[in-house]
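Pilot study result, target chain (318 residues):
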Amino acid sequence: MSTPSATTSSSASVPGTEHAPVSPGGAPGRLGSLGPVGLVLAGGISVQFGGALAVTLMPRAGALGVVTLRLLAAAVILLVVCRPRLRGHSRADWGTVAVFGIAMGAMNGLFYESVARIPLGAAVTLEVLGPLALSVLASRRAVNAVWAGLALCGVFLLSGGGFGSLDPVGVAFALGAGAMWAAYIVFSARTGRRFPQADGLALAMAVAALLFLPLGIAESGTRLLDPATVALGSAVAVLSSVLPYTLELLALRRLPASTFAVLMSLEPAIAATAGFLILDQSLSATQSAAIALVIGASIGAVRTQVGRGKATLPLDAP
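Predicted structure:
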């Protein structure tokens, strides 16, 4: 996951926009030579391979320990780069950024607990149902019932008719992460309207890191201080947060938001590929078809939103 300046958009997001960034600074000019679509795909690959790396780190630090390391590293980087202003904000501003941080931390924690139990591709597929449901509910068009039905067919196939092939606890964590992703999108937009630049994101990331620190310490203890573990956790933060935010920020300067959202809808497939290449997690033909159905539902919902002129994206961080 997923996962930029806090946010500036409508509260009704399109699915698959977990990582839409507002990165604090520019990026090397040569990155732009990849082209906007290449930048988005590179960002998605970075996010999902970062997630796969996180899974390999879990035996060292546990799921909550990995989340803690990722959030702490990302918070330090964002706070140093953004240097957010702490004065001049109302109580409502701080309340919004606090809820944003809670949603961000919960989304990451639930997702990492999920991938500790079920394949990465399946977890991302289930998680994307959260923003997909938000998109369908926000548009209130009859055609979205088709996309919802298509997604449910995908979930049914993925479950094998009852999630017999997947750990039900892992499934529950993935669905919970999806719900938090939807909440994250809403409060990401609200934070973006209250804080300039990436200030809100940096502060929310700090809130999430502080909330998870006791949980990470309780689960992993001194293992969090191991230099190799810290280095790997920092690599996860860079791959899953800093690098994709920068790439996607560059892409969004030249790419329509609707096209960006469609590309983000491909993340379950990228996640399945990362799981296969790094974690040796193979998917059956039925599970692959299920992922394809959910991707199709996400793309359909995006195009429906675009047709109504509501293709604005929340700029958020995973």
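One observation from the pilot: The two ends are 5 Å apart (CA to CA). A full batch analysis is planned for the follow-on phase.
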